[in-house]
Design goal:
nine-stranded antiparallel sheet, Immunoglobulin-like, mainly beta, Lipoprotein
Length: about 130
């Protein structure tokens, strides 16, 4: 029974891949930050996205940051995001029946911490 469940799960996953599902791996860097942003687009009008922001600057990482992400389909922001081991998460976002991020899009990012601000662009690495 366990094998049947695993087989059905794999078949369901593989069948979903044929429905126009795409996974985009965006990334970019600035002087003090690296960011990785994964976007899963399904059926052309649904997306799930999440990101990781890593402090790469010299000295001690800040305790918290603010970020803004701007895309052609909208944007998101986080205020007071706590960094653990110099890494913060943008959280998961999901929409259905929406405009979605395109694979060739450039995503604008702004990170603010301790009175400093850096802007950079994420591009798809697929």
């Amino acid at each position: 029974m366990k094998r049947l469940t695993v087989l059905m799960t794999v078949l369901l996953f593989l069948s979903a891949c044929g429905n126009g599902d795409n996974r985009y791996n965006f990334s970019g860097s600035s002087k003090n930050w690296d960011m990785f942003y994964v976007v899963n687009v399904s059926n052309g009008d649904s997306e799930e996205k999440n990101g990781t922001i890593k402090f790469t600057g010299s000295g001690e990482a800040p305790e918290t940051i603010n970020y803004k992400i701007a895309t052609s389909s909208g944007g998101s922001e986080g205020i007071g995001i706590t960094l653990e081991d110099a890494v913060g998460k943008t959280g998961n976002g999901y929409c259905s029946g929406c405009a979605v991020i395109q694979k060739d899009e450039e995503i604008e990012v702004q990170i603010t911490w301790n009175g400093q601000t850096e802007n950079f662009v994420l591009t798809n690495k697929n």
